[in-house]
Write a structure and sequence with these properties.
This protein is mostly helical and 584 residues long. The protein is 65% helix and 2% strand. The strands form two sheets. Strands 1-2 form a two-stranded antiparallel ribbon. It is globular.
């Protein structure tokens, strides 16, 4: 990832810009120092910000933001060895990082005042931190724009690129673990974490560093896949405080698996499904009925592999039964029909109680006491010691979901790159044109519907055992608690339709944020709506979009050198014409 020094050296930098950059560096150093001061006098504020020389987690966020800001400022000054941080320009990412650090620090100071009730509850250290963090933000804002085209990166040795990939995934694991492990009694910490991570991620994109990293991972695909799998497996081994946060990770993986299935329907085939959570419910209810639950109407107990296949088969059958008569519809009409199917499923499960209908699902009370999974004597409901580390019950389900997620990713990638996957994309772009080219639109859409439904059913079989109960209220169209159809669709759109990592990232955000911000209660959906509006305004293609989506939404941004391209095209045309004339 090392590049040639593409920024002007300090001696050639205009005096004003140099002064602003050194001011940014000085402000960042002062901000780092302020993190080692006491920000309040009492330990009643969550996190205990009263200790000198030992930054609390909230202060660590400010410290990390200041360090990143200072490094980017030094990169803009042309310091040797830091040019790789800003391959496409330093001003925008520098200002975004400085603003994010200031916003994080200011939020912490305001939270202290609101929580403790008085302005005097701030220690001088907090005031110093706010003022010091404001200096880089103001100085970076006054810098002139230095956006440029990224210079070609030098090809690194394979061992160096492998080390970079491992380092990036390690940092990512630590960042994600920090966010998941934030104490629910300290919502201020999670909000500050979201602020800093949001600004930092935006800065990385603006600096062009993510593009360089994607090039390295593309050249080392096998290493990237292996590193991501190892880091995912390492997560439960870092949880020493119990299974509380591992349960959140398990639910995120279940949510992400269902979102990937929906991504086949929405992202690849372009079918708007508003009742997709019903297929998750079909798999969960099927697993509950055949897994030996005491309230099951069937009284049978299948091994997990058999109950998983049964849940997938049941969801697939429902997908075909629902899709066969309805997939000839398009657009809003199809969305309305799928929304109706989702509500019919929920109501039907509530009525199969022996009174309104046959006694199958125990009605609104659901099916409780679903037994824990057991493989060859390995009980998933018990703690086990692995490599000297005790793993709780939810850690077992987490590792199981990692394997299922890997299977779903393989199915999605293979299907998307196959002949039928190309047919899905053709149907999504223009069904009339695809039909004219000989594609059987109905059959192709039905396959997408059935495959997506079966993947959701597989996730539902695990969800039933994790929750140990299944009730109809878990499978509604919209609600404050995911997964539901609205949140699943939002996860696909927010993450990036048609991609693999997009729905996973979207699912993680949409599950983690409501779980950590439960103190907002009724205001959760308000904040969720505002966030979606802002996202659709500034990044309509999603957080992690494919190239086609970026070109559709940012065509001008992706092709800045239109005159040069036009001249090149004219030259090629002239050459082709001359060749044709000579041949004649």
């Amino acid at each position: 990832m090392t590049t040639e020094n593409i920024t002007a050296p300090a001696a050639e930098t205009p005096a004003k810009a140099t002064g602003l950059l050194w001011t940014t560096v000085a402000g960042s150093v002062a901000t780092v120092a302020s993190a080692f001061l006491a920000w309040t006098w009492t330990a009643e504020f969550p996190g205990d910000l009263t200790i000198y020389g030992n930054p609390a987690p909230l202060q660590l966020l400010t410290l990390v933001g200041a360090v990143l800001t200072g490094l980017h400022a030094l990169s803009a000054l042309g310091i040797k060895g830091l040019g790789w941080l800003t391959p496409t320009g330093a001003r925008k990412p520098l200002w975004i990082l400085a603003l994010g650090t200031f916003a994080t620090t200011l939020f912490t100071a305001i939270a202290i005042i609101v929580e403790l009730g008085h302005l005097v509850d701030l220690e001088p250290g907090a005031v110093v931190a706010v003022v010091a963090a404001a200096v880089p933000a103001i100085a970076a804002f006054k810098l002139t724009d230095d956006t440029r085209k990224a210079a070609p990166a030098k090809q690194l040795p394979s061992w160096a690129e492998i080390l970079i990939i491992v380092a990036v995934f390690t940092v990512g694991l630590l960042v994600v673990t920090f966010g998941i492990d934030t104490d629910d009694n300290e919502p201020q910490l999670f909000v500050a974490y979201l602020i800093l991570v949001g600004f930092s991620a935006t800065a990385l994109v603006k600096s062009g560093l993510t593009t360089r990293l994607s090039q390295i991972t593309a050249r080392n695909r096998q290493v990237t896949i292996t590193a991501s799998l190892v880091m995912a497996i390492a997560f439960p081994f870092l949880q020493q405080s119990g299974d509380t946060y591992t349960l959140i990770a398990v639910n995120i993986l279940i949510f992400a698996t269902v979102a990937l299935g929906l991504n086949i329907v929405v992202g690849l085939a372009g079918l708007l499904d508003l009742g997709y959570v019903a297929f998750l419910g079909v798999g969960a209810y099927t697993a509950a009925l055949v897994s030996g639950a005491t309230s099951s109407a069937f009284g049978v107990q299948f091994p997990f592999w058999a109950s998983a296949l049964t849940g997938m088969a049941a969801s697939l059958v429902f997908g075909v039964v629902i899709g066969a008569p309805t997939l000839r519809l398009r657009g809003d009409y199809l969305a309305i029909v799928t929304l109706g199917f989702g509500e019919i499923f929920r109501i039907a499960m509530g009525n199969l109680d022996g009174t309104s209908g046959p006694q199958i699902t125990n009605g609104p009370n659901g099916i409780p006491n679903i037994p824990q999974l057991e493989f060859f004597g390995y009980n998933f409901g018990e703690s086990h010691t692995v490599f000297g580390i005790e793993l709780g019950a939810y850690a077992n389900y987490y590792l199981l979901m990692i394997l299922i997620m890997a299977l779903v990713v393989i199915v999605f990638s293979r299907a998307g790159n196959s002949r039928i996957g190309r047919a899905w994309v053709a149907i999504r772009e223009d069904e009339t044109a695809a039909t004219a080219m000989g594609i059987n639109g109905f059959r192709v859409k039905l396959v997408a519907f059935a495959l997506g439904a079966s993947l959701a059913g597989l996730a539902g079989t695990v969800q039933a055992h994790v929750n140990t109960t299944v009730v109809p209220e878990n499978y509604v169209f919209a609600g404050p608690v995911p997964p539901n159809s609205a949140f699943l669709l939002a996860a696909v759109i927010l993450g990036g339709m048609g991609t693999i990592t997009g729905p996973i990232v979207g699912s993680a955000l949409l599950f983690l944020i409501p779980a950590k911000l439960s103190f907002l209660q009724d205001y959760q959906l308000l904040g969720f709506g505002i966030a979606l509006i802002l996202l659709m305004r500034f990044r309509p293609e999603g957080l992690i979009a494919n190239k086609r989506a970026r070109l559709e939404f940012h065509e001008n941004d992706e092709q800045p050198d239109v005159p040069e391209q036009r001249q090149s095209a004219e030259a090629d045309a002239a050459t082709a014409a001359g060749t044709a004339k000579a041949g004649a």
